[in-house]
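We examine the record.
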Amino acid sequence: MRSDQTFNVLFLCTGNSARSIMAEAILNREGKGRFKAYSAGSQPKGTVNEHTLHLLRKLNYKTESARSKSWDEFSTDNAPVMDFVFTVCDSAAAETCPIWPGQPMTAHWGVPDPAAAEGTDAEKALAFADAYRMLHSRISIFVNLPIASLDRLSLQNRLDSIGQNEPASTA
C-alpha cells in the first residue's frame, strides 16, 4: 500500500441504518481525502435510523447522501475495489460475506446496536452517542496508522486490536 493512495473502506452491519452509516460519515470527515468510506448491510433496513441522522446533523455532518443499502452493491464488477472491510456488528461478522474484489484487509470492530436501545428518547440518544464515540475513537486510531510503512501482518494485527475494548495506540 502506498502512502499517496486513497484507500476505499467499507463498513458492514446487518441493517445499515445506524453504526455503519455513522462510521461512513466519520471516516469521510476524519480521513481528510486519504480514505473514501462506504457502508452497507447484509439485510438493509432500507432507511437510515432517524436517531442516526439527528446525531450526525447535530455534529455538523452532511447526511443528504446517507442511505441504507445492500452489500451486494459492492460485490459487482463495477463497484469500487475495497482496501479495507470492517464489520461493526456481531451478526454481520458471523455471516458469510461476499468475495470482495482485490482481497481487502478485514477486521471486526463490534459496537453495541444503538437502534436496539429501549427507554426514553434521552436514553436512546445516549445509546447513539455511545456508539458514535466508540466508532469515532476507533476510526481516529485507524486514520493515524502508518499504513504504508507496515507489513500486511503488522497492519492486520493493528486493525484487529482497534476492534478490542482497549485499542492499541498508533505508536
